[in-house]
Amino acid sequence: MTALVDIRGLTRSFGGPAILSGIDLTIAKGEFVALLGRSGSGKSTLLRVLAGLDDAPAQQLQLPRRRSVVFQEPRLMPWKTVIDNITLGVKRQDARSIAEQALEDVGLSHRRNAWPLTLSGGEAQRAALARALVREPELLLLDEPFAALDALTRMRMHGLVFDLWQKHKPAVLLVTHDIGEAITLADRILVLENGRFTKEILVTLDHPRQRNGPEASRIEAELLTELGVEPSHA
Length: 234
Hints:
Helices cover 33% and strands 23% of the residues.
């Protein structure tokens, strides 16, 4: 498969121990990759480099031109309506019609003229996804976008993100602490520890995935062990 992201020898430090220590990362076009790791492992630092928000030395750094990020907080401008938030910074003449389509894709057309502070948590994250999609990204970066949502809304968002990925075909990097979330969505799961990748697992389960099936349970146990958590045998 053609590499969309190709990084070799990426290192990042902030005056102390290295946050990222000479890591290599390849993401293929259209691939869905999940990144797991404990707090302080370097996940957010890596995402910022991929988003172009942070410069870092690397022997090789190949990134697509069109990239979008969805953060844990929706980061909507409260003084602009939903659709005006989505079109903010988009220079195309057809920005409004593309935004309307993005709102339809995320099931939020009926809230196009709403103010952000009137949205539920799930609606706000759907608006953030629409804002990312309107830029037609080749690489979609998701930085724990469901962490603040309740369990039922989070499950619905998983289905939405999967459907959007299938429709728009970007490569996706999902940063998460949720192993079940990674297994549900990703083609490949990476574990980052002390600035290095320590585990890579290919997930070949068919969609929709059963999180309590035998293969998913095996992967979960392997990841828990890698993250230093004793798997439950209850």
